[in-house]
Amino acid sequence: MDGWMDGWMDGWMDGRYSHSNQTLSMSLDDKQETLRGADENRGSLGKPACSRKRTATIIFTLKNEVGGLIKALKLFQEKHVHLVHIESRKSRRRDSDFEVFVDCDSEHEQMKELTQLLSTHAQIVEITPFGGCSPLAEDDRADALEADGIPWFPKKISDLDQCANRVLMYGSDLDADHPGFKDGVYRKRRQYFADVAMTFKHGNPIPKIHYTAEEVRTWGVVFRELHKLYPSHACKEYLKNLPLLTRDCCYSEDNIPQLEDVSKFLKGRSGFTIRPVAGYLSPRDFLAGLAFRVFHCTQYVRHSSEPLYTPEPDTCHELLGHVPLLAEPSFAQFSQEIGLASLGASDDAVKKLATCYFFTVEFGLCKQDGKLRAYGAGLLSSVSELKHSLSGKANILPFDPILTCNQECMITTFQEAYFVAESFEEAKNKMREFAKTLHRPFTVHYNPYTQSVDVLTDTHNINSMVKDIRHELDIVEEALNQLGKPLRE
Known about the structure:
Shape: globular
CATH superfamily of the largest domain: Aromatic amino acid hydroxylase
Oligomer: single chain
Distance between the termini: 49 Å
CATH topology of the largest domain: Phenylalanine Hydroxylase
Strand order of the largest sheet: 4-5-3-6
């Protein structure tokens, strides 16, 4: 199509493009139906009958500036990519003015080069194979996302090996005000725990730790003091799961549970697993683990000189604060959805999600039987702050992610405000709505069978997901029919 640039601006103005004797008038909203129909063009074995070239669909956005469209479309000509259909519409995205929809014939390498080049001039929203051919390879989709400025994120659970060791501070590197800063023996012990975590790989059992008598005594002090408060301060879900951990993971004041035992317990209860970590992770890396139902967990114990205080998360905080609620399916899903929302999100969006996580999973309150109860791990592992949060003197506000995400997180003092939700379900629904307001040009879906994340950038992935949903609905309908309760239309 050597002369396709001539007269294109007329087509741009009304959002249509006519080629030869054929007028193409498919709207963007009709695109998905057409893509679905392309699945019929398959061989006898159910595989696409692809030629050497294939037709692909690209949607990209542009600012309404002079020459912007010309520059973008000229790239197709330079890469000898044949245009089959072009149209435009007013963009629904805040950061652009127009969306351009293009069908084009190309070979694999041409398409890869084109998308990389096009991403320097425009924001690519979607790349979708067309005409029944197989979807772009996973590596190609990843390249397209990264070329579009999307931060790297793990696509499968084993990818966490690449980010679990990006620890901000660990081992013997303690701040000068840390209780164990001048204790050489303690610092050496912390380095041992760091080495165990840094050498761990996905799929391996978590190494068993032989805790010292001093470490067990420190754990025992924390364990005893907190158990005095749990009946009157902890939420019902926490109190339900704590006895199960005593039974199955040997929770007691004279025994520090092993992470491998706890991980197996959680796997059977909510699908979560434990991964040892050497210290603080960045919010992005920590939340990414939650997306795969993986909780990064420290194994070291706070310094014995101050058993009821720690400036950092330790195994007392993790095992007594987090684990009992990670065993609760509804809470586990809430945590995972925050993690999924963070994948590929902007730095600003991750900061907002991390702040919401901090004031819910770490310091959240809920209402039960007309009374305030704690479900945040930071509260449930701190004797003094657990008392303070429910003393009637703390500043209590309703949980609203839009407001909560701007609250300052206090690390070494009590929080200036605590946020209360009516239930985990309410908090989860509010976070879902909030996540929709955070700009991300794609959607992700967690596949529990492969423990991987599907990036829903093309109709092939979406159709696969729809098939899974239909299968699940068939099972529900069959179960209801057996109960004599037909599924509502």
